[in-house]
Amino acid sequence: MKEDFEALVLAVISEIPYGQVASYGQIAELAGYPRHGRHVGKACSHSEFYGDYPCHRVVNSQGRTAPGWDEQRCLLEAEGVEFKPNGCVDMAKYQWQLR
Fold it and tell me: Known catalytic residue: 55?
């Protein structure tokens, strides 16, 4: 199940558009596993074993980037994502909205 879950999560992550972000919980829900947001984070940490995925576009529900991954902010800013003074992504402006 673990590999199936990770593959599903990474497939959802690959759909996040350039310049937008999604929360761990949002990804878990879209993958069909609501309440498994922490597992999404784990899948992101294993993503390099499966290919090239835009895991830098996944943040927590408040817009905080992953601890210890300083490059994440730079990658998001390069895509035009702006941060609030508190260091969080402006989720109201940049959160991926399915249409």
Answer: yes
* pLDDT digit string, tens, across residues 44-77: 887 777 778 999 999 999 999 999 999 999 999 9
Contact 32, 4 (CB under 8 A): no
Q: Which of 44, 55, 74, 88 is catalytic?
A: 55
Q: How many CA atoms lie within 13 A of 32 on its CB side?
A: 7
Q: How far is CA 75 from CA 7, 18, 29, 81, 85, in A?
A: 23, 11, 25, 9, 18
Its sign, for the CA torsion 10, 5, 97, 57, is negative
pTM summary value? 0.91
